[in-house]
Amino acid sequence: MCRLLGIVTASPYEFGLVLREAPRSMAVLSREHRDGWGIATHAGMRGYGWELHRSVRTADDDPAFAKQAEGARGRVIIAHVRQRTVGALSLANTHPFRQGDWVFAHNGTVKDVGYVAAHASPERLSERAGDTDSELFFAFLLTRLDEADVSQEPASRRTDDVIRRAVLEVTARPDFGSLNFLLSNGTSLYTSRFGRPLHLLERSPAVGGELDGALSGPVPIDQRRCVAVASEPLTDEPWTPIEQGALLRLEVGRTPHWVTID
Q: CB atoms < 10 A from the CB of 24, how many?
């Protein structure tokens, strides 16, 4: 098992609270999920790229994690702490994984790797750096996006349909495994719950207004709008369990929001 965290926000957001300071921060969770960590952040606007930092050390014991958590800022984050089940302890097997604009992290175990590998393109399979079931499934998802010619497009009903069909295809197979994942192109974030708990939080500012603009300034905590998903509640706020089988798309914007993909 591993632990996932994904957030989309309205304004540039400093993520140290959920990474290190919260009662059940990713650093705290890493004491039970010790096999590496990864943080991917994005400005949330087309034309920008991902900042990705990973390590095979336990996050709570790693000065590099503390440094990255303190400086992590953006409108989108995907973070992961690993408890390995498939694949060696190595940087290549550490989540999140990135290919072009897309970043992916997974919690669970894909048992039917033969089917996934057989339905991923040779090009996408060749991009893998490690040997996890998670990176293999990422290659499968990218293959499906490539086949529909939407891998370079902003998220839309077209990408929704492709990802939904891909998830239904594999989870309909007998004993497929478990498939909680986060997938983002930097402006939208897809999340799937299949087989493991996953929780959602919508945070609105306590006062009117919302800061917006360049990445040059932090946002006061009472003016932060965001939607977050996590393997378990990280704070004492009212997190809501996501239903088994649900696929959601979270959107960056002045009013971050989420939609269910049916």
A: 16
